[in-house]
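Our preliminary data section would be incomplete without showing what the modeling component actually yields. Below, a chain of 627 amino acids is followed by its predicted structure, encoded as tokens that our downstream tools consume directly.
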Amino acid sequence: MADQWVSQIDPASNREFWINHATRETSWTKPLAQASGLPLGWEEKRDAQGRVFFIDHNTKQTTWTDPRNSGHASVAAAATPAASSYSGGSSGGGGGGGGMSDAELARMLQEQENSGGAEDETAGFGTEMSSFGGGGGGGGAADEDDDEAFARRLQEEEDAATEAPRSKSKDRSKSKEDVVLPESAYESVLSTRHDVKQLGWKKVYVRLHGSMFTVYSSEKSKTSVAETDVVGAKLSEAEASGKFISKKDISRFTVTASDGTAHDYATEDEHSRALWLGHLIVAGATHPPPQMLCKAMLPVLEGPPSDIREQALRTMATVLSKSGTDLDPLAAAMCETDLLTAVIRCLSSPPGQEQAARIIFYVGSQAQCQQALHEAGAVASLLDLLTSPNDALQTWVTASLRPLVVHNVAATSQVLEGGGIFTLCALLSSPSSDIQGHALAAICALLSTCNKPGPELEATKALTMSRAISDAVGGAGGYAAVVGSLRSGDVRVVGVATQLVAMLSSSQDPSVPGALRQQGCIAVVVNMLQSVPAPDVPTQRAALLVLGNLTRSDLGATPDALRQCQQTGGLARALDLLLSSDLGVREQAACVVYVGTTSHLDHRPTIHHAIALPSDRHNYCPLAGPD
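Predicted structure:
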């Protein structure tokens, strides 16, 4: 029987297989010679428990009985009609595929024996043997097929044969295959290295289900051949493994799982690789080295608007959000590869504008990026998008302005000249607390730039710019909006609004504190200080600073302002906060009490009556003299 088989090499995988042109069959394993004494066409096998059983390829039957002891003719004659023929297919029949593995066959024989069947009871099975003729009466089309076609067909049949038992086994054991996988986030054909000597590539179909990087033998396959959880997996550049069979026109990458196992994959172009890297990073994989990441994403970001470009932007934003304070290496790579310029261009049209704004938000405070962003026109592009009807986009655009303008004189001037303050004040009335908070923070950043004169901003120019910002806020109706933000139910908004009011109330222009008093700012701040639970420490400091500034006579306060602070409980609350565990809170509380005891002398008896100090508080209040 073995003499009728011919050895061939599969050109796709370099694997050896055998063809029997007489029986029109192929096999990955070398057919057995009949040196064992078994009748022609018989084969000896062992089950998982080591028990021997026998296969008759002539009649397509199995038995526990050794045909050398009982005579193979009698064994064949003993087959009953209940015994089914296997579905391996041969030249004589058109039987379908989907046979059983040897292990399943042995289990079936054991079950029949346990249920009382005779030891020579037979059962149907499926083997590695497969017909390449397409069925019995169909004619000789197979004779015209070449060896490569046979090998390819054999590979497909082997994949199907290995997937079916695996699926059945996992169904029985209730394994993770029973769990419904999330909908595929992305899927495509990839090439992966052959296991043999890591030379050459073979195509597989890969789907990303949540965080599971799942490999299938083909697009139609329902059962995976490999799975990798990409959470914590490392992505890197895959190196070529020699010149033999290794493609040069592919874009490679390596996925190294958390257990250390690594697999090389390749795509046909840079865009496809960027897309796969992006999806894997968003799914939880660790990003590749900064230079590789930026070089992979740059061609996509420089391309026309598309879903692929949006995914590349989302990838960069995700990486930056996970980098925490360690942004320097990635920021440097983004500047060196000119990636930031491409990001700014992506602000001009959807999709991906929101992700581009996120990127600017994360790198805008980096000194090495600020100059590149300014030169690329980032501020002007963001100002154009402040009025976007898309709330998510508007949120990130507003947020990204703050790191760009803080301590940046050129960017601050650009916002002033571009009418950005008017738009920011309008956003204070937004129903979104996120947009309100980011708008307040941006105005704070503009003022803080003017409050710290330096080589780029002399004191006189700083004062002029600060007054221009205050005037712009007042002209846009911003004082009422800012005081209204102090009543917000979002503690984040209240915190940043208090910081902004503290900066405005410290203005050397008396009209600014006066405008805040007219908006009822004193009562609102006192109410906030009395709220339960108490505001956080920075908010308490800022609120006490506001009370001190709004009741100072040298800043235009009248006796009515001090009286209002006393009547609403502001002075009493300041006394309580003299015992705060925070030094900054104690200092600001002492200043409020000091203002109350030194301003408007004709009202001092009333004030002293309201703030009679216990002996343990004298050390915290810088009162003048025995009064």
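The longest strand covers residues 184-193. The CA atoms of residues 71 and 430 lie 93 Å apart. Preliminary results of this kind motivate Aim 1 of the renewal.
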